[in-house]
């Protein structure tokens, strides 16, 4: 019986349907049909249904758009946390050999180029370490390691712009996260992140770090090169700068590292094939 109104029976509430709204078992007499189907414009009726559905049975019928953006935000946070963890472990493991160098002009270059990437809000930063061996490593979420040896080869402003731009592209296109997941490093890295700093197993940290550095050579280098020249005001200037730097690297690295590690000949051909 409806409280305060004798003789009237309250409608029984039934379980939620797939659409997420509860179904009430109202009597279907002619007298109350106007209540069941109010005469509202169809657009307004749809808005009412959507608004009601967002608050009823939310566990069973979540908004797919809200879920998508929520997952995307969570993945970006995880990406940033993983990158920070890996770069800190890298600097810690290499010790004195990784003494970082402050280069204000590189910071300014990063700020300018980052605004032109597809993910300008990421915390991009370039760390230059004191090492004569030419090298570069893009980490998830923003950190990038360059060696002083590589910067010495990138002698012109255009070559340095190409070098920084291609690493920003790696991060923006989630290439580091792609190789982490492909190599099965995602779960071990998250496990390390969840552990307190003092309780982390150093050998597990080293294995993840070494696995990532090894896998990082498998990132899509050609795509990073192609997309980097798009960040130049004049793409042809970027292409020529990229070719110049890659040819220097080819001569510098071939005695100490297999070409297939970086596919320098293939990358050079890739840029040569692009039409001005």
Topology overview:
Blueprint lengths: L12 E2 L8 E2 L8 H4 L5 H14 L8 H31 L5 E2 L2 H11 L10 E5 L6 E3 L4 E5 H6 L3 H16 L2 H8 L3 H9 L7 H15 L4 H9 L5 H19 L5 H4 L1 H10 L3
Parallel strand pairs: 4-6
Antiparallel strand pairs: 1-2, 3-4, 5-6
Structure description:
This protein is α+β, with helices and mostly antiparallel strands. The chain is 57% helix and 7% strand. A 4-stranded mixed β-sheet has the order 3-4-6-5, sandwiched between helices. The chain has a two-stranded antiparallel sheet with strand order 1-2. A hairpin with an 8-residue loop joins β1 and β2 (23-24). The model is unreliable at 16-38 and 43-61 (pLDDT under 50).
Keywords:
4-stranded mixed β-sheet
How is the largest sheet built, in terms of strand order? 3-4-6-5
The backbone outline, from C-alpha atoms, is globular
User: What is the mean predicted local confidence, pLDDT?
Assistant: 79
Structural class, by secondary structure, is: alpha+beta
- Major β-sheet annotation: 4 strands, mixed
Helix amount, in percent?
55-70%
- Poorly predicted regions are 16-38, 43-61
Strand content: 5-15%
Distance between the termini: 82 Å
Oligomeric state: single chain
Q: How large is the radius of gyration?
A: 28 Å
SSE series:
EEHHHEHEEEHHHHHHHHH
Helical stretch tally:
13
Number of strands: 6
